[in-house]
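Morning!

As promised:
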Amino acid sequence: MSLTPEAIKTLSRVSTATITTVLLKKGLRNVWMRGSRPLRPGQPRLVGPAFTLRFVPAREDLATPESWSSPISTRTAIEAMPEGCIAVVDAVGVTDAGIFGDILCARMAKRGVAALVTDGVVRDLEGVLGTGLPVWCDGFAAPPSVAGLTFVGWGEPIGCGGVAVFPNDIIVADQDGAVVIPQAFLDLILAEGAEQERMEAWIVEQVNSGAVLPGLYPMISPVRGRPAGRRKSILRARSGRIRSSQPRRRRELPRTGYPLSPARARIGIRIRWAKRSTSSPA
Amino acid sequence: MSLTPEAIKTLSRVSTATITTVLLKKGLRNVWMRGSRPLRPGQPRLVGPAFTLRFVPAREDLATPESWSSPISTRTAIEAMPEGCIAVVDAVGVTDAGIFGDILCARMAKRGVAALVTDGVVRDLEGVLGTGLPVWCDGFAAPPSVAGLTFVGWGEPIGCGGVAVFPNDIIVADQDGAVVIPQAFLDLILAEGAEQERMEAWIVEQVNSGAVLPGLYPMISPVRGRPAGRRKSILRARSGRIRSSQPRRRRELPRTGYPLSPARARIGIRIRWAKRSTSSPA
Amino acid sequence: MSLTPEAIKTLSRVSTATITTVLLKKGLRNVWMRGSRPLRPGQPRLVGPAFTLRFVPAREDLATPESWSSPISTRTAIEAMPEGCIAVVDAVGVTDAGIFGDILCARMAKRGVAALVTDGVVRDLEGVLGTGLPVWCDGFAAPPSVAGLTFVGWGEPIGCGGVAVFPNDIIVADQDGAVVIPQAFLDLILAEGAEQERMEAWIVEQVNSGAVLPGLYPMISPVRGRPAGRRKSILRARSGRIRSSQPRRRRELPRTGYPLSPARARIGIRIRWAKRSTSSPA
Amino acid sequence: MSLTPEAIKTLSRVSTATITTVLLKKGLRNVWMRGSRPLRPGQPRLVGPAFTLRFVPAREDLATPESWSSPISTRTAIEAMPEGCIAVVDAVGVTDAGIFGDILCARMAKRGVAALVTDGVVRDLEGVLGTGLPVWCDGFAAPPSVAGLTFVGWGEPIGCGGVAVFPNDIIVADQDGAVVIPQAFLDLILAEGAEQERMEAWIVEQVNSGAVLPGLYPMISPVRGRPAGRRKSILRARSGRIRSSQPRRRRELPRTGYPLSPARARIGIRIRWAKRSTSSPA
Amino acid sequence: MSLTPEAIKTLSRVSTATITTVLLKKGLRNVWMRGSRPLRPGQPRLVGPAFTLRFVPAREDLATPESWSSPISTRTAIEAMPEGCIAVVDAVGVTDAGIFGDILCARMAKRGVAALVTDGVVRDLEGVLGTGLPVWCDGFAAPPSVAGLTFVGWGEPIGCGGVAVFPNDIIVADQDGAVVIPQAFLDLILAEGAEQERMEAWIVEQVNSGAVLPGLYPMISPVRGRPAGRRKSILRARSGRIRSSQPRRRRELPRTGYPLSPARARIGIRIRWAKRSTSSPA
Amino acid sequence: MSLTPEAIKTLSRVSTATITTVLLKKGLRNVWMRGSRPLRPGQPRLVGPAFTLRFVPAREDLATPESWSSPISTRTAIEAMPEGCIAVVDAVGVTDAGIFGDILCARMAKRGVAALVTDGVVRDLEGVLGTGLPVWCDGFAAPPSVAGLTFVGWGEPIGCGGVAVFPNDIIVADQDGAVVIPQAFLDLILAEGAEQERMEAWIVEQVNSGAVLPGLYPMISPVRGRPAGRRKSILRARSGRIRSSQPRRRRELPRTGYPLSPARARIGIRIRWAKRSTSSPA
């Protein structure tokens, strides 16, 4: 499925935390971009296809103010951004030169770019906030990009915050940062993400009513299929047992050699839980 | 002395800055947990005995959603936490996987855990803040713990932010972060901490009235024992002398070879000032 | 020109982002102090001559509370600070020991020190904020300076955040951090900084009215000299051409071997744009 | 299968590079201990069960020479090591304090310990080399362990070089460093490791005879099952095609959006290649 | 001038240390690739045009053994390398996954690739050394590239060790590491490099005969133009003066405010010394 | 005592490992310079008074080849070095610009400088090795010092590898790196260092004869005063007891709450062992 308006609407109700959990169950552990935090606290969740930009380190003969007028420049890249995209910028870990300032961010906002995500930093902090463009980045710095970076192109595979991002991968960004959903996994997230959110909301409610965690989260099989009323009575019975069994804990846990059955190590099992498990993680 | 309610009340009036100063005078320089900052600005100071949890790095066969149901899991650890404890979590420097999210923090709040302290990060930032559990951590990240960490146990000696923490060490956390008071040093802090705070408040007052620092902070012997009124006149006289002696500074400070008398290097001296000094540091 | 009150007034209207751009055009890329961020969001821009302080790492026989009373101490250094100066402190990258707390900051505020800039951290966060002294630093920590640092002097060349700072260099600090203007470059900044700010304000206005970036920022020669009205019509015509030429982009950009004419590599060219260019960077 | 002498003999012919490849095909990417390099170039490959030791950071009241006589000390841990084990030491990333010196290494050699593996460093470099104990570590440092570390126990799960190691996991160390084979994966490595080594030796031979890489490494299906003679003629024919198809490469590779079929993203496929693929990696 | 066999011969007599000095005089300070050291001590100096390869971080759905058979793979990249080129590989700072092992290096050696330069690491250390391919890298690791990296293409601008490298830039690698000569600067290095080497050899000779450094290195104007015999007598006279003036040093060096004339700060001056100076650096 | 030829002779028989142990017993844990390793394996131990040099980060207007001719330059600093000193250079953690090359090292060797110690790197690796000057450093790099560093003076307190070094402190460098002995501690090391070395040699001998570690190292009181023959029989008796008590270990070690008597935490005790203990560390 492509990123239809309906898909965007669905995803805007799925947290990045939930997305990383669902993807991890399929073997993807590395989809959250390190260093990329909301520039303004409380920015709402945003969803869009990745428009990638790429920098390499600065070389003094290339990274000059003159280069801003070259046909390969951040300026021309911005003019190529489609409405609704999320610009994802590979700043190769450079945090002492701002990739964009207020003028470029103002132009992006004007073009309808949904958000800017980068492992680098911005400059003209006050001005950037003033443009209203939602930004996820690693802070701010006064120097211009050319003090530390050379711009080399857009529309290419990049790394951002230690994560591989390809053009048109789906980006979701919220309070916890920004994650990539590879295109091939979009349907999965659309199918399981919302259900997962519903389940977790129910669990939080139970916890607030005093339920213990084991058996509830993740949910054990006798609980999972049942209607909400039946779930509670099973869990209540279980809570009693857990409390009384606490003192016996030590005996059951041999310190040398975890009780790892060989079967658990086989990938087949990983698939089984990927299918049967609808409950979720820490 | 054990951590009685009265001791907790006393400690809640002693800042972590003061605690580190008093401990340093006894030779303990490494008691402040790096990376552990208040998640919500303005969190009040909290005090409690350490309940330790330990992670090691993730191995894909162990760090799975399935592991959340194992008898050694963060869930069972939380059910073992006593009311009033401070959970201290060794996340081995991993900041791209959240050790806990909103559900686990909600349960900790429900159980009366006083606070969560870690050198790692949390996830579901908004949800965690919503639980009201006070948290000191190194930020937030969307991925679940198993994306980067394997949970291995609780109630063990751990490292947190480069500091050794043992179960039942006393933890104090405030605006400046979180520190550990080894049990054997509790009486010392109870005895000297409050006095140190009083002294510093008086010094700030003097500074606000225009007193110069040398002789006042740390307080010189002719000042320290005196009543407040007498202190002022000594210091005022001294201020004059300091100002006029400024131009002679250069002559008195040979640049090569600090005037380090051999005696100063002996530890005996360090003890002497530990006893006589009640004033405090930068 | 020396740092007259008038110069300070002029500089207080030039952002650190603009200063770094103007200096970069003269070949200075390394003038922004890494790690030094405003302690309180929204601190206004401040300008002053650098008063340098220098720490080296802690050695337990030297870095003691006793050392606070030595003739070479942070206390005597503070008493030597002239009104209006900006204290710049080399903390050799140590962020787990606070260089100053509330008492020392209170004294600096009392003496009329304009600001404190460091690549280290402060302690007694709440107290420091209470003194009203504007601080740019890398965060906060509970331990005293002697837990990690030995103070060795003031009025010397230092490194701060990876930047060389000499006594009486001009420091400007604002939302984007703190930069150094070498004395020899003061006239340049006074001459070009304000003009640059005016130009950028005009560009932002154009962007907000829908102008495209290429040709506008940086401004191309046919535009730069013209009156504002004429500029617009040139740019509007140009915008059309840029949009229609987009599809041809690929053909013009050979991927192997950037069209770097040998001439461009010569420093002579860099000088030429340094002279003719009044527009500015990302 | 447990680690019999025969298993050790088999593993001593399988390189750590091959082991990491076979484990990666089962989803284990994190089994190589960062920082752990052979102390003496040319050390032969060694195999043994892990005997784990654990340090936490130093706290001055605990990490003292006195602690060397405590019942929980590196000394007693060494006396508990069984012959043939590989001691794996979690030094929590500390590289400025040597975990062991010549005396402790001499005792380990005397007890028949097969090797020492750590992400920390040793001290008394010359003496340690003199004991003949094979060591994989992150270098050397003069200070004793207590300058930076507190020893807390043995026989526990640890992290070493960013990898989780459990007691009795199998350790293999050679020129490329040290890897862990989880117990549940031992049979897999015994079954596939040797075959993989044979296959790679044959491929190197082909490369030395001038074969091109694509189709050969990893081996394509039409080649893999065949006898060596038949393989060559298929590959030779293929080489011609590859060379002539070079110029057409560009056309086949759309730059935006990798040709990632949704199917490829499913974990089921990963299993299929895990089963059918006997050829190997970069 | 392009990289003719004659140019290669000339460059093979110019050290990377000299090249960085000559380029720095033109304003290029960032041309040496961090982390890239000779894998085998004593490797001779090598020169060639850059053939670039690019990795991004691993994503588990892309970085698989299966990817080794894709049309965009390290295998196809190697088959596209021209004889005599130097392969420069951007491994985005990943040092826990080997970019190439013995098989790929063997194929590169077979194709006549001059050398491999990377900020990453190799695997199969022993095998790689056996292929005879000269390698500059940041060490070795057992895991395959796909454990940490996704290969995305070749013939593109890359970053390597913090330096921008474009296809066909000239690479020179020797005992001190690897540097890039931008194409536009080739003529400069050919013209000045050899002369610089001759001058330095003469200076070393003088030093070994007892000459003092000031005036000799860098050479002062009265010395530089003269025949070797005349140079010596000038320097000898000067040495006497320097020795006797030592005691007066302190007085001449004001500690606050370096004697930085405004003129020195202008870029024009930098050009002047670039032209007149033939002596060289530390 | 000052650093007489006799003292140098004595120190040249005391390893840096032993020095750090003796100093740690007096409370000094931070005397070993991180990053400073022998450039040539097998360099003999060297001893001398520190001659300090100081760099700050590069600023392009100051760090120029022109600066090499200034009155404050590495050249004039070298001419001020007395015979037999050890030059200790603060390179502020910069490892991508060589502080010295072959010419400067040749001059230092000519002047009789005993050794060069730095946390930075050298350049012209081959040439530097050719001068015969013993060097402890953090590797090598091609670029000149001015690519990353500005030289600011000599004869001042510095930091080197995270350690404070003052002019005329005593430096000892060997296979394990370089350590500083503060002047006030020289007599202590002269008195205890040699005895410690003798004791350790005897212990190694015992270990090679099969003695167990507990009780031997560190030596228990009943053993320490005795003649060598008597020591052995005590230890032999003890070894039997240790072996048979192994199985009971678990019971004696409560996991929560280390048996830390309050007394142990008092500094007084640390002094007592400092006086009575002559045996030594890990």
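Chain C touches chain E at residues 26-27, 155-157, 166-168, 182-185, 187, 255-258, 260-262, 264-268, 270-271, 274 (CB under 8 Å).

Hope this helps with the figure draft.
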